[in-house]
Amino acid sequence: MDLNSLDKINIEGLEVFAKHGVFKEEQFLGQKFVVNATLYTNTRKAGLSDDLTASIDYGMISKKIVEFMQENTFELIETVAEKLAQKLLMETERLEGITLEIQKPWAPVLLPLKNVSVKITRSWHEAYIALGSNMGDKKKYLDEAINSLDNLDYVRVENVSDFIETLPYGGVSQDDFLNGCAAIKTLYTPMELLDCLHRLENEAGRERKIHWGPRTLDLDIIFYDDLVMSTKELIIPHVQMHLRDFVLVPLAQIAPWVRHPIFGTTVAELLEANKKDYIKDKQFI
Questions:
Q1: pTM, entire model
Q2: Which terminal Cβ of the chain has fewer Cβ within 10 Å, N or C?
Q3: Euclidean distance between the first and the last CA atom of the chain, given in angstroms as a whole number
Q4: CATH label of the domain that carries residue 190
Q5: CA 97 – CA 280 distance, rounded (Å)
C-alpha cells in the first residue's frame, strides 16, 4: 500500500493517563502518555459530499485510543503502539494505514530528559496467493485453504479465482493439479505471512519429500504490494510465476491489471507472452 498517495487526518497531543511500564509502580500508579496519530485514507468522497460517514470519525478514533490504553497494561510502549495500530486498522472502515507515536514524558530514567517516545507506521498490504493441490479431494483442500486464510487474525480475502485443472510441473510422475489464486489484504509482514501459509499447509497434511512432487496443499506468495525481495526463505515476486500458466491463468482472472514490479508488464501481458502449455483444460471449474 502506497501511503504517500493517500490523504491524512492528524490527531495531535491526545493525553491519556494509563498504566504501562516495566516497573510495578508504573503499572499500579499509572502516568501520563501523549498520543499522536496520522490516519491514512481517501477523503475525496467526504470532501465532495460533506458526509462524515464517507470519512473517518477522528472523535471516535480518539475515544478508541483512550479506551484501549486505559483498559490494557503492557510493559513496553512498543507493544502499546503495535497492538493499538492493529486494533484500529482491523476495526476502522476506510483506514488504510496509520502512524502512531506514543510519548512517555514521565519515563523513570532518572535523567533530565523531555520525553521518550515510540513511533511506528503500519498499513494494510495487498498480496496474491497461488493455491494448488493434487492429492485426495483437491477442491476441498483449496476451499478449506481459502476459508482458513480468511480466518487468520490479520488477513482479509478480497477475491478468489475459479479453479483450473492443470498438468504436473517439474517432471515428477503424479496426478493432475487443481490450481487457483486469491487476492488478500494483510497486516502481516511477508515472512509472517509465509509462516502462516506453511502452517496451513502442514495442517492439510503437506509433506515435503520430493521437490515438485505431489502435495495436498501448496500455497505461494506471488506478489506483495510492489515489493521486490530475495532471501533464502522467500523470493517476491515468485521467481517463476511468469513462466507458469497455472499461476497466470487464475491470477489474470482476478487481477489482469497488476504489474510485475521487476518486468513492468501486467499479469494479462505475462499470460499472453507465456507460450508453455501446462494447462490440461483451460476451462475454469
A1: 0.89
A2: C
A3: 31
A4: 3.30.70.560
A5: 42
Query: Residue 137 has what pLDDT?
Result: 92
Angle at which helix 58-71 crosses helix 77-91, to 10 degrees, equals 140
- Same domain (yes/no): 145, 267: yes
Cβ–Cβ < 8 Å for 134, 178: yes
- Residue 278 has what pLDDT? 45
Low-confidence ranges of the chain (pLDDT < 70): 169-174, 206-213, 275-285
Residues classed as catalytic: 104
**Cα separation values, 221 from 46, 174, 272, Å:** 35, 23, 21
CB 95, CB 40: distance < 8 Å:
yes
**Would you say 257 and 232 are in contact if contact means Cβ atoms under 8 Å apart?**
no
Return the pLDDT at 168. 75
Q: How high is the pLDDT of residue 173?
A: 56
Number of structural domains (the chain) is 2
Same domain, 153 and 243: yes
* Whether 171 and 181 share a structural domain: yes
User: What is the predicted pLDDT for the residue at 277?
Assistant: 47
